[in-house]
Amino acid sequence: MRRAVFLDRDGVLIRNVHYGCDPDAIQLLSGVPQGLRLLREQGYLLIVVTNQSGVARGYFTEGQLEAMHMRLGEMLMDVGAAIDGFYYCPHHPGGVVPAYTVICDCRKPRPGMILRACADFGIEVASSWLIGDILDDVEAGNRAGCRSILLDVGSESAPESPERMPEYVATDFLDAVHHLLTQHQGSERVRKLGGEEVRKRRGTDPGSLPRPIASWPSAARREGVRRRG
Ligand SMILES: [Mg+2]
Ligand SMILES: [Zn+2]
After folding, report:
1. Is the pTM of this model over 0.70?
2. 12-30: pLDDT as tens digits
3. pLDDT (tens digit, 9 = 90+) per residue, 84-112?
4. Hey, what domains does the chain have and what are their CATH numbers?
5. Which ligand gives the minimal distance to the CA of 9?
């Protein structure tokens, strides 16, 4: 079985443009080529999973979206960070294009795209990760059964339910990758040890504990803003 990192597209790999689909406007976010190379070196498949309701809303077609993904794939391949698969959800129940105006199983926070990729590539979901910038991404990853990291872009408040709780809140893409790889090395070590010792070491490893909600960065920052205001 292989392992993968599932990557949200907008706000994680590339600058978020409101319903943007122009290949010439793609801007990779800082640290992304380097971070993706590090993940590839450790044997992770790189799979993009992205909600693109602009198709259902009539802003662009699937053909235009695929052309954009082809360009993004070329840009990343050129820097040694090739993407193994692009999965997108073109649907939205409030769309205007009838074929896409449906309730589907692929729009995050539903886990459909991740589960489909796991079946297509033979991916072991429990050894895989999701990196997203909103809690709908995190929930999709958690519901699929992988471990999840939220990039803290300051837009999300603390999760209201356990299934929306990320394992780690990262300051930027490279911070997310470093957390993932640290955990990866930890689990490789654990695999080489035996039962009782594994449990002992796991129990004392502070890196394996999720960050408590009280230290939720965005919420803390907003509190600060309110107090100052
Ligand atoms: Mg996003
Ligand atoms: Zn869908």
Report:
1. yes
2. 999 999 999 999 999 999 9
3. 999 999 999 999 999 999 999 999 999 99
4. 4-228 (3.40.50.1000)
5. 1
Amino acid letter at 170?
Answer: A
**Number of residues assigned to the chain:** 229
Which of these, 186, 176, 184, lies nearest to 149 by C-alpha position? 176
* Distance of CA 108 from the midpoint of ligand 2 (Å): 8
The phi, psi pair for 89, rounded to 5°, reads -105, 115
Catalytic residues: 8, 10
Ligand 2 centroid, distance to 201 Cα (angstroms) = 42
What order do you get walking across the sheet with 45-51 strand by strand?
85-89, 45-51, 4-7, 129-132, 147-151, 168-170
**Close Cβ partners of 171 (under 8 Å, ≥ 6 residues apart):** 151, 152, 217
Structure tokens at 143: 């519901």
φ, ψ of residue 70 in degrees (nearest 5): -65, -45
In the numeric block, the tokens 């990779």 are attached to: 28
Q: How far apart are CA 153 and CA 42, in angstroms?
A: 26
CA of 54 to the centre of ligand 2 (A): 12
